[in-house]
Amino acid sequence: GGIGLDTSKELLKRDLKNLVILDRIKNPAAIAELKALNPKVCVTFYPYDVTVPIAETTKLLKTIFAELKTIDVLINGAGILDDHQIERTIAVNYTGLVNTTTAIMEFWDKRKCGPGGIICNIGSVTGFNAIYQVPVYSGTKAAVVNFTSSLAKLAPITGVTAYTVNPGITRTTLVQKFNSWLDVEPQVAKKLLAHPTQPPLACAENFVKAIELNQNGALWKLDLGTLEAVKWCKHWDSGI
């Protein structure tokens, strides 16, 4: 649903061979709608919960790779917004993303004679500047930005490139009602939506543009219907 469904629709306007959707919840109507949009593209669905152990993810990926032989792009897009659910927010938004990425390296890493690949991680503008009333959610998105930037720098070693797309506040069910950390602001959703937002379709259109640009290490901001490359300031360098 939301950004994920609209982005899938935009992708199907392109010359794809396969679109594989992994989700915890099966939505046959949505899958049927996607298949009808472009019959030339093979759209398949596999049930998947990003919070499962890496071994389980690897097992699923083996099945998918056996069927398709090659996968070019992995989009990590699972996410929840509820700072009452601290452990689950971290598990879905960050740990699951890291684990799924780690699992696909088994098939992509050039050190294992893999062909390389492209990781597209969905972050958030809160990864740059937090919505301070939801510090757990915002913290996971900052972690996604940092993790992905590291992946991009590791590309010469692994052959796997990476970038983030970071949507601004988008009118999806995710932001209609959500809990702040320790209830510091019970009206956080209402106050947030009082400011300018963007529809999911506008976000999806720029999302696919970012995928087509395919710039390793890019930090894309998708806000208010625009696509902008964010320049990250370096305040420290490990020197190694």
UniProtKB/TrEMBL annotation:
GO molecular function, one term: alcohol dehydrogenase (NAD+) activity
Enzyme class: oxidoreductase
Pfam hit, one: adh_short
UniProt keyword terms in alphabetical order: NAD, Oxidoreductase
Keyword DNA repair belongs to the record: no
Catalytic activity: a secondary alcohol + NAD(+) = a ketone + NADH + H(+); a primary alcohol + NAD(+) = an aldehyde + NADH + H(+)
Family matches, as PANTHER family: ALCOHOL DEHYDROGENASE
Protein name: Alcohol dehydrogenase
Organism: Drosophila teissieri
Gene name in the database record: jgw
